[in-house]
Specification:
Elements lengths: L1 H18 L3 H16 L8 H38 L2
Helix pairs in contact: 1-2, 1-3
């Protein structure tokens, strides 16, 4: 169950870091995830349902971030082109 809780904690902290645009926090989480993967531990028990729910939330958040970033890039390109038209 300890590994399940570690994964849940990392997912929660990742969601928090993304919502606060905390790049340093995301880098630290990446290192923690790397260590966890290298440990070859397996998730078992009741925590798996919670992990999957949090993973889905993270996927939705990342999709939203991508859509917003794409929209910002389109606006930036449009504004940049307009500057050269004068």
């Amino acid at each position: 169950m300890a590994i399940d809780q570690a994964v849940v904690d990392i997912l929660d902290e990742t969601i928090q870091a993304l919502t606060h645009f905390d790049f340093n926090g995301l880098q630290a989480l990446e290192e923690r995830i790397s260590v966890l993967v290298k440990s070859d531990a397996k998730c078992i028990g009741d925590g798996l349902h919670l992990i999957l729910a949090k993973q889905r939330l993270l996927e939705l958040l990342l999709q939203s971030c991508k859509l917003n970033l794409d929209a910002l890039n389109r606006l930036h390109r449009r504004n940049t082109r307009g500057q050269w038209a004068h």
